[in-house]
Amino acid sequence: MDLTTYAIPAFVLLLAVEILAYRFAPDDEQRGYTAKDTATSLSMGLGSIAANLGWGVLAALAWVGGYHLTPLDVPGTWWGWALAVLAVDFFYYWEHRAMHEIRLLWASHVVHHSSRHYNLSTALRQSWTGAHHLVFMLPVALLGFSPAMVFTAYSVNLLYQFWIHTERIHTLGKPIEYVFNTPSHHRVHHGSNRQYLDRNYGGILIVWDRLFRSFEPEGERVDYGLTKNIATYNPLRVAFHEYRAIGHDVRHATGWRERFGRVFRGPGWSPAPTTATAPAATAEAAA
Predict the structure, then answer these.
(1) Same structural domain for residues 21 and 146?
(2) 3-class DSSP assignment, residue 224
(3) Beta-carbon neighbour count of residue 64 at 10 Å?
(4) Which of 8, 191, 203, 205 is the most exposed place for a label (fewest CB within 10 A)?
């Protein structure tokens, strides 16, 4: 069950509450809302709902197949559902991490990081090409969780992450901040500051980041957005600009190694300069 669709009225209500909070209790250190940015985020969210109708069918087929292949079967008891949420959150961590470390997946996820604002509308700025969760959630089905449990647990994960896209909540108590993903932790994840890049991938729990050494606490003020921001509010360009950049880099690559790297290495990867070009590159860097 995709709970996020049913939660749309709640999303709209909470957005209105946050906008009013900025109106009547402004904070000069917070960026708040702008009409164009918010309209783009909402457009991306509506497009994502439409696109996920197709991706959801493919995911359902894959998870049904995996569930019927495995001899395992987790019952739909309260503890079975709790394990489903935990399992989905664990594999979501690795899905999210892969989206930052593999450029082809980053081309989909970059949409969510493209806003230079951080508010509840940013949570709705979602990709239109989200087929990757089909693969990363397949192990959950192979562990014996029914497709309905996988879908619902994944929806719970996404619903949880809505409220952490805000600057209006500073920090919570230490026990909560240590275990759960919070607005403070997720602000770091959306930062383009050097020390914040590729940190805090967790969905519901932040303990995965602590365990796998990708955690970074919030320190200096967060600069939201990309290391190279895109100057557009056009939803089509926001959705597909990185795929276009990949195509450009692949067409101009000098060999298959570079072509592979441009697609499957990290977003900032570039081939090492050859012996012939190294002196020129060194001189350019010095300049």
Answers:
(1) yes
(2) strand
(3) 15
(4) 8
